[in-house]
Amino acid sequence: MGSASDQTGTVEWKGACFYQNQAWMEFHNKSGSEFGGGTLHIKVSDAHSWTCMDLYVFATPYRVTWDYYFLSREHTLEFNEWEGKLEYEYVKNKGVSIFLMQAGMLGTLEALWDVFPLFTNTGWGENSNIGFLKKHMGASFEQRPEPWFTNVTVEEIHSGDFLAVSKIRGRWGGFETLEKWVTGAYAGHTAVCLRDSEGKLWVGESGHENDEGQDIIAILPWDEWWDFEVNKDDSNPHIALLPLHPDMRAKFNETAAWEYALSMDGKPYGYHNMIFSWIDTRSGNYPPPLDAHLVASGMTMWNHIQPAYAANMWNEALNKRLGTEGLDLPDILVETERRGTPFDELLTIPEQDDWIYSDGKSTSCVAFVLEMYKEAGLFDPIGSSIQVTEFTIKDAYSLRFFENNSSRLPKWCNDADTVKLPYCQIRGKYRMELPGYNVLDPYPHMNERCPSMPPKYSRTANC
């Protein structure tokens, strides 16, 4: 419908129920915070019937909310506090985007109401994430004895050892919670350990935030990475170290792993194919109330709010699947209609590891780790028939690559915990669960056609 900001003044439009509508933004600082907040005024009038209503979604790149109106009058939507300078400047210059939805979407938005608090960097937000995962996935969040971090002996960490990370508050906590819900993963981020020729331990990570606020691939000294996670990461990360099995460690080609890591160092995080590791089937990957139509609606809204971000997240990847170049989302939807290809079918076409995007190869956090495993020989002799960009985090820790003999785990592994996990949790208040850990041998075209429906997230054979 438009955007309401200081710069645009009053925006006007015709709705489905109310034919005359106006909106304008009033900035204020009722919170007494650095950048304040604002009130969005929405005046609706001239309803075409006594029983109709209009349903709206209001969005910035930093939040999404909704409301519905069935009375002719002025309504308000409060933004108590902007999420820092970036959201304040965005709303000041570009405004809050206003989308008119079909009234039938009300039930869907009500069902998604408990999603909105997940992204707040507060105790309420953290409790919302925990509550959401308990309710929708059956996660337990059992509290561990203190101390909640381990004094790690780095000499007992080896190249190829896997780091599973679960964040439960703030922007990344909220994002990871939704990722866990739709994929069945009980971790939301990954990294990998590497030791150099002089014995120094490093961490390779896709998704490291640099000084400019960009998410990139980085190779960091262990001490720097660990210090940040213990002392500076405000997302309350829970971290488990998954040591490789001795047979896999012997197979791991450290030289090839380093060559791959250094070739990717500094490149952008793999946003392009992130959602496509989740969506493998036309209907078996969407927990209610999600479906492919709602995903397409979300893409369309984001295409208006952040067109460059939308291009990075899915437009290029959808062009790859169509064999086209440069189409934006509306053109992609027209092209799929012209070809008679349902949009939900387009989303299921498997990602290919050798696809090159505008900024190079696209690897999410887990794809980066598994591509390193692939280069290091862990998928041999079937590596050429494995597309690691189709693996979710759950798919990764389910691989039978990791230690299966607890007597070989380091002495400090779970030393203070009364429950002995088959891996080493090294940080976190709550015990990390990894259902389906270390049980699947690789096979050709693995994880290209797998359903992922909560709460059991059952796999079909050889999917």
List keywords for this structure.
463 residues, alpha+beta, endopeptidase fold (from Nostoc punctiforme), six-stranded antiparallel sheet
Helix content: 25-40%
**Biggest β-sheet: strands ordered side by side in the sheet:** 12-11-10-9-13-16
User: From the structure provided, what is the oligomeric state, counting identical versus distinct chains?
Assistant: single chain
CATH architecture classification of the largest domain: Alpha-Beta Complex
Strand fraction band? 15-25%
- Quickly count the domains: 3
Number of helices: 13
Low-confidence stretches: none
Number of strands: 16
CATH class category name of the largest domain: Alpha Beta
Mean pLDDT: 90
CATH topology of the largest domain: endopeptidase fold (from Nostoc punctiforme)
The Rg value, from CA coordinates, equals 24 Å
N-to-C series of helices and strands: EEEEEEEHEHHEHEEEHEHHHHHHEEHHE
* Spatial gap, N to C terminus: 42 Å
* Main β-sheet description: 6 strands, antiparallel
Find the structural class using helix and strand composition: alpha+beta
Q: Any idea what the shape is? A: globular
Write the layout of secondary structure elements.
Layout lengths: L1 E3 L6 E3 L4 E11 L8 E11 L6 E7 L2 E7 L3 E7 L5 H9 L2 E6 L4 H6 L11 H15 L24 E5 L3 H14 L5 E7 L5 E9 L5 E7 H10 L6 E5 L3 H6 L2 H11 L27 H14 L1 H16 L6 H11 L3 H4 L9 E2 L2 E2 L3 H11 L17 H6 L25 E4 L36
Antiparallel strand pairs: 1-8, 2-3, 3-4, 4-7, 5-6, 5-8, 9-10, 9-13, 10-11, 11-12, 13-16, 14-15
Helix pairs in contact: 3-4, 7-12, 8-9, 9-10
